[in-house]
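Justification of resources, computational component.

The compute hours requested in this renewal are based largely on the per-chain cost of generating structure records like the one below. Each record pairs the submitted sequence with a full structure-token output. That output is archived, and it is also reused by downstream analysis tasks.
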Amino acid sequence: MSETIRIAQQMKQGFEKDCWSGPSLLEVLDGVDHKMASAKPIPNAHTIWEIVMHLIAGQSLMLRMVQGDIAQRVAVGDWWYDVPKPTKANWTATLARLKKQEKELQRAVAKFPDDRLETPLVEGGRSAYNNLHGHVQHTLYHAGQILMLKKALGTKQQ
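The structure output for this chain reads:
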């Protein structure tokens, strides 16, 4: 089995289920509705929805980098997308986009050539290997944040 297929499997576990460290991102998001997602239980902290939009931005950038669409490092602002109006329909659409993009990214990573893993994805950046594993770490870091926000909202933890 290729290393990139193994990385794609780690991405899937951290995103969907069977995560070694605890609940996956989707398991953490289970039961979150648009009201919870837009609530701000901790002053000066991001909302769940803001974090999910940040994850979507990260997926989009990683997908473009894996596909060779970005030559230079990206600006910090490119990692954050605006949150739409907090409605049930918009939350449903946000989650659908999150799931769709992650699957696209996992497929692209599984097809990424192993012999390019030590090559930077962007000029002056870290290796593809580092970036791909970083995506898994980034997803789980924010899953932990979302768990804390859910706890602050008084929801039952998993």
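Helices lie at 3-15, 25-29, 34-38, 48-66, 88-111, 128-152. Residues 3-152 form a domain with the Four Helix Bundle (Hemerythrin (Met), subunit A) fold (CATH 1.20.120.450).
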